[in-house]
Amino acid sequence: MGGNEINYFAGGNTAYGYVHHFESNFQQLDRLFILKGGPGTAKSTIMKSIGNEWYERGYDVEWIHSTQDVQNVDGVIIPQLKIGLVDGSVPHIVEPQIPIVVEEYVNVGKVFDRNELLPKKADIIQLTRAIQRGYENVYDTFRKALEQHDRLESYYIKEIDRNKADQLTKEWIGDHIRPKKEQTNAIVKHRFLGASTPEGPVDFIENLTSTVTNRFFIKGRPGCGKSTMLKKIAKTAFERGYSTEIYHCGFDPNSLDMVIVRELDWAIFDSTAPHEYFPSKKSDVSIDLYNLTITPGTDEKYETEINEVQKSYKTEMAKGIDRLKAVKKLEDELNKIYNKATNVSSITSIREEINEQIIKEEMVR
Question: Entry's Pfam families (predicted)?
């Protein structure tokens, strides 16, 4: 019988390049295996295999998904054992803070037969450089899309009633974040609500909020103050002693899209495109910031300008996703070269070595 699973992104292809918050999610771990190695070294396969084994044993598992390929994982955490595994290679480089005692390198690169790779050296170099250029093009396109998104926000920012927005946030905080009497070791974990992937935007909202009773769906337009409201809520929750999960926007990491405080049994999130959801449970509540804080008739007032900017924004975003798809094809080609030079028995051996250490950790608990 399996335990509970949650799925999320800890990194993202954003308008500011690749940004990650992996270390934030490892704060409570006693042991972290950092897998190092090139493409095609089966790092994801090893982590998924180990994670699935412990899930079947009844342990909870956190799956940190890859933005390059959502079916793969960049990390796995087994909270009850305080153990994690992570792909510490580019672009989400993770380095030990307390080497050997907590974090430990695992050299997955030793599974390769170098003599098999040498004849393909020129192809490897060419593909690697093409992939780097490809990501630069992706991020350049997303930056252009962000410029259009900022323009779109500006029309609503001009029409927002900040006093109403502030009062609404204060009232929500007063109703849902009671001051905590006892002292606790509260922590903040930073993640991403969704991610831009070669398959388009992907999120795990339903999974992340499945065990939360009270869900608040924030509706509105860009610039209606959704992120500002969430930042104030997250800050207050932590200051009042609650461990807080903060989910950044996968497009603009400076913006927030969701806050979860499981101890208080609520989640509040931006429920607009590309992660648009609607209440489906009796306890779900919608908060429409457009109707509550924006001057009536704003959509109509700037209709021509808004339509023009939205078109430009969507064009750049679509172009960015297409470029991600092109990069994914190059990565697949590079992986094939490395896969052919991989010793499968070595992968199995590494997997077993790591798992044996986890079993020993379990026995002493």
Answer: Viral_helicase1
